[in-house]
Design brief:
single chain, 510 residues, alpha/beta, Rossmann fold, 2 domains, 6-stranded parallel beta sheet, 17 strands, 18% strand, globular, disordered C terminus, Glucosylglycerol-phosphate synthase
Amino acid sequence: MARKGERRLVIVSNRLPVVMEHNDTGWFVRPSSGGLVTALAPVLRDRGGIWIGWPGTSSEIDLTEPLAIGTRTAGYSLKPVSLTPQEVQNFYFGFANEVIWPLFHDLQGSCNFDPDYWATYQEVNFKYAEVTAETAGKGDYIWVHDYHLMCLGRALRQLGVNSLIGFFLHIPFPPLDIFLKLPWRFQILRALLEFDLIGLQTLRDYRNFLQCIRAVIKDVRVQLNGRIATIRFGERGLRVGAFPISIDYKAFAREAVSEEVTERSRHIHEELPKRHIVLGVDRLDYTKGIPHKLDAFRRLLTQHPELREQITLVQVVVPSRETIPKYQDLKMEIERMVGEINGLFTVWGWAPIIYIFRSLDRDELIAYYRASEIALVTPLKDGMNLVSKEFCASSVEEECVLILSEFAGAAAQLQNGALLVNPYDTELVADAIHRAFSMNRVDRKYRMHKLRKKIRENDVFHWVDSFLKAAIGRDLHEFPPLEDYLPQVELDAVSYRGETAAQDFLQGAS
């Protein structure tokens, strides 16, 4: 636990950084593998901080013991927020993933603007605010993450929390003409103005946000100062900036040369001898452009028959939201295309696509990164995309090529070393794969060396430092590791502080 008088980082996100699983002996936890966890876990570890979020289970289940064990393993305290099944349905599957997720990825045709979703979204944000208010100390810095909790700052102010509160949006922020389609555009922007610092992934997102603020909120004043803007609204003042998220570069590079990863990587190549491995690693989601990628690979094999039996696409799809019909349909479409392409081109001893539908453990993932000559990262739109950075950090021989969608946030940082493509242009993507396959060793090493240097200099600790310097004028050293860290977690039932505050919050947002 934190020493008296020390400032702590309090992270608040939709989910805790662990996955709850059940077997014959009861409930247990394992680390989550999401991008947010990959970025923040090494930062928060052993600093006496707190992570607040939903554990992913029913509120009736007693998670005291497994979360206490998870706390000791993680190196920071885990504080759960209880949600009912109906709240999960309307808040997470509803508003977050049927409204904000498609809209902010420029896919407004997939939105379902159900008013019940909006009502539950506000109620759940208030519930997170109550847990945060009860947990955070006066000197702690509260850092809220992502689109699920855009109203949390306003709810915390309603509860009388005067601490500094930061917010970071991990997905893109849409341009004005798309954002205006949101029925609750004013309420969302007004709630965001209650944070003290808003961080976005890229300068494009930063400009889009400021344009929306100017158009939607009356009497707002924006003062630009380089990559940081100051917004004045009534008596409130806050800052907005672009802070591209990253990874723990040294950890990936170190694990890539470990004995276990090296051995796994060697086995992968033994199974695919004398072949270029093209690697795709994507979560099951319609924004990742997996069918477009498969179509591009089909075009490659059709237009360049000489590459058959010399190249193999290893496509890893990480399961996600499989209970949602749209995601079930996407999975079926991917599997249909993989079967069709393999049926067209497979010969004895060679299949063009190896399809893996499961999560990979960290060592296995890094082994695939290291074994692959080409990474094909082609989302239709992405806030950042950390797979591209993980691939480069793990490519210690530097004899590989990154093909990257120009619509990924990472493209702004990696454009000088990657081959940038429009994922909708499948012929262009096929040409890029052919170019990567044909690229000589010197060019590959030159490009990958530049990419790795860029990521090394702008790793996750640089991201946190840049955000905290803008937030509190200090960097991560303000939260030093604790020498005798003995994490403790309070797991008392979450209850409302009072109906009055809740009603004030909901009425003010309507």
